[in-house]
Amino acid sequence: MAGFGDVFDWVKHQVSSRVPKADLDQRDSDYIREQLPGLWLLASLYFRADVRGLDRIPAEGPVLLVGNHSGGNVPPDTFVFTLAFSSYFGVERPFYQLAHNLVVSAPPLGSLRKFGTVAANHDNARLALQSGAALLVYPGGDYEVFRPFWERNKVDFGGRMGYVRLAREAGVPIVPIASVGGQESVFFLSRGQWLAKLLMVDKLLRLKSVPIALAPPWGLIISDLYGHIPLPSKIVIEALDPIEPDGDDRAVHEKVEGALQAAVDRMAAERRFPILG
């Protein structure tokens, strides 16, 4: 008779086996070209998207784009930046975004893979950079994206510094991507890290948080697993000056996080009201 450990291992294997393998060829430039005008119009009207500093990103070649992350499982910052990047540099420039396993494995979100979304792990990231692509990563992951509303303008990667080693090994610069507004599109009350441990999804699904939030159309939500309708918060994003991954990991990490926090503080000071911007 199978014990609890055997059942746990079986469930974990079933989850991991359903994560699509990274296939960079799934990015479809023709599909992006077709979808871009309508989606950018939506982003411009609904989120009043304001994306700055794209000229600071190297015009060609591989580059690691490192951003602070907001908005839960429906993050408007990723949506807006992906559209802006593709509009500015052209859909032919290879561009990929790392996302949690649950995002890339969800059938309704299969179209994201056509935009270049792949599962967040070191191998996939290295493969994308080796191909000569621009790669967008959010080191803070679910820890940062589910932070409480009153910490909405705090940049906190939770001590994760693997992206520095990734950039150094690939020999590419790090371009910090600062954003504000995403954490005003949903009101998170708690990361729910205690709930993640209680439900053991931290081990099964690599989820360190089971957040508690207020968001339409559900009202009070727990886990954000089924997503939500984001409030029409004004999204402002700015690409900052490139940072070379020289020196030890912590020094580079503190430089990146510091640059992001300074930019977020500056952009947040421009906002008069939450959501309205």
From TrEMBL:
Q: Which UniProt keywords apply?
A: Acyltransferase, Transferase
Q: Which residues form the Phospholipid/glycerol acyltransferase domain?
A: 63-182
- Domain of life from the UniProt record: Bacteria
| Segments traversing the membrane | none
Which InterPro entries does UniProt cross-reference here?
A: Plipid/glycerol_acylTrfase
**Any Pfam family matching the protein:** Acyltransferase
- Kindly list the GO CC terms recorded for this protein: membrane
Q: Does the keyword Aminoacyl-tRNA synthetase apply?
A: no
A GO term, aspect molecular function: acyltransferase activity
* Protein name in UniProt: 1-acyl-sn-glycerol-3-phosphate acyltransferase
Organism field: Mycolicibacterium chubuense (strain NBB4)
Specify the taxonomic lineage.
Bacteria, Bacillati, Actinomycetota, Actinomycetes, Mycobacteriales
